[in-house]
Amino acid sequence: MLRIAGWCWMAIAILHAGVGLIVYWPQWQMIGQAGWFNVLAPDPLAPIFEREDAFWFMMMTPFLVILGRLCLWAHWQKLTLPLSVSIILLGVVVCGIVLMPISGFWLVLIPSLMLLWASKATGYNASAE
Q1: Cα separation values, 48 from 25, 29, 34, Å
Q2: In 10 A of CB 6, how many CB atoms?
Q3: Inter-residue contact 106 to 28 (CB < 8 Å)
Q4: Fewer Cβ within 10 Å of end Cβ, the chain: N or C?
Q5: Nearest to residue 5, comparing CAs of 69, 85, 95, 84?
Q6: d(Cα 124, Cα 38) in Å, to the nearest integer?
Q7: Whole-prediction pTM value?
Q8: Does residue 28 sit in helix, strand or coil?
Q9: Distance between CA 79 and CA 1 in Å, rounded?
């Protein structure tokens, strides 16, 4: 189950990066034309929210990759992830779905449930954390 979840997270990360480049292409062009350094919020009292949106959207991608690689590593090592990780992740996903129902949070619901299932199936004791 962790292997499948890991590859799901990796695929979602690639999709996330692609969508971020396509949707935020004008913002990335502005960032590039401005010289890259300190161009997101050069004046903290007058932020450029469009650039910040593009940045934070893309900054999520490496964490999705890390999560996918962690799942794959745990699978290859014949380990499981702590139940608390699955519960926290699922809580974040549910909050995202409730607060922003038209979003990609629906995509990560399935691998989040897979992680929860994998943690429960191994009989991992949450009280041991």
Answers
A1: 15, 14, 12
A2: 23
A3: no
A4: C
A5: 69
A6: 45
A7: 0.82
A8: helix
A9: 11
